[in-house]
């Protein structure tokens, strides 16, 4: 279940970075600043967490079902944005207003991913004050998140391609949320140990392959068929 939650958090963070690319510059800067401030102010709650509490949360079918419902809501809003963004820009004003309202919602899973990273950092750096670690991470996010967002825009300059990837990420989160919902309710007992080296190796291979493919496509775009 830890691997499923990790994939949901990574997909949610990627969705957030992709959605930043559709926002106007001042919206993007505002959301980056709000995200950094939220992370910086989250250290009391993050410091109150423990590995036992996290394990209990992952083992609770009721809590995981609630989390899956939250993921489903975010998936629905993301899919609605993708469908509205593909509509004709000449549509009536209410359609454009609906699309802009959906664009204002960057996602909740991305904050949960950053909160999880903050909690991990607090456990890994016990000698540093929690507040200092939290605000240092917030400052790092102000530098790193814009670079990642601009990197995605460089690799995926096509508007429709980014929409398609955003749509596929939403479907991935929805499917993983279903898996999280049935945690502890299946008749077959699965493997409880996570093979982290193999999982990280697979993610590294997929990530490098994706990066190489997108870079080659950027350098040498495919020729249009006659």
Overview of the molecule:
This protein is mainly α. It has one domain (2-195). It has 10 helices and no strands. The protein has helices at 2-20, 25-40, 43-47, 51-59, 61-85, 93-103, 109-124, 130-155, 159-181, 196-219. The mean pLDDT is 79.
Rg from C-alpha positions?
Answer: 19 Å
**Discrete helix count:** 10
Oligomeric category: single chain
**Number of strand segments:** 0
The whole-number mean of residue pLDDT values reads: 79
Key features of this structure:
226 residues; mainly alpha; 77% helix; 0% strand
Nutshell version of this structure?
By secondary structure, the protein is mainly alpha-helical.
Question: What is this structure's SSE topology?
Answer:
Layout: H1 2-20, H2 25-40, H3 43-47, H4 51-59, H5 61-85, H6 93-103, H7 109-124, H8 130-155, H9 159-181, H10 196-219
């Amino acid at each position: 279940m830890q691997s499923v939650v990790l994939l949901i958090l990574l997909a949610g963070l990627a969705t957030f970075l992709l959605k930043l690319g559709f926002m106007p510059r001042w919206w993007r800067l505002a959301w980056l600043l709000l995200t950094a401030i939220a992370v910086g102010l989250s250290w009391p709650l993050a410091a109150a967490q423990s590995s036992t509490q996290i394990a209990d949360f992952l083992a609770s079918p009721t809590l995981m079902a609630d989390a899956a419902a939250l993921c489903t809501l975010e998936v629905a809003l993301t899919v609605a944005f993708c469908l509205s963004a593909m509509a004709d820009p000449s549509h009536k004003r209410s359609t454009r207003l609906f699309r802009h309202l959906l664009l204002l919602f960057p996602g909740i899973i991305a904050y949960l991913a950053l909160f999880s990273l903050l909690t991990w950092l607090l456990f890994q750096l016990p000698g540093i004050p929690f507040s200092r670690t939290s605000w240092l991470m917030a400052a790092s996010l102000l530098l790193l998140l814009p670079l990642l967002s601009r990197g995605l825009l460089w690799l995926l300059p096509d508007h429709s391609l980014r929409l398609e990837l955003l749509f596929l990420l939403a479907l991935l989160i929805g499917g993983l949320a279903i898996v999280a919902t049935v945690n502890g309710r299946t008749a077959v007992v699965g493997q409880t140990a996570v093979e982290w080296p193999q999982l990280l190796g697979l993610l590294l291979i997929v990530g490098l392959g994706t990066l190489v493919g997108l870079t080659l496509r950027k350098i040498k775009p495919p020729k249009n068929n006659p």
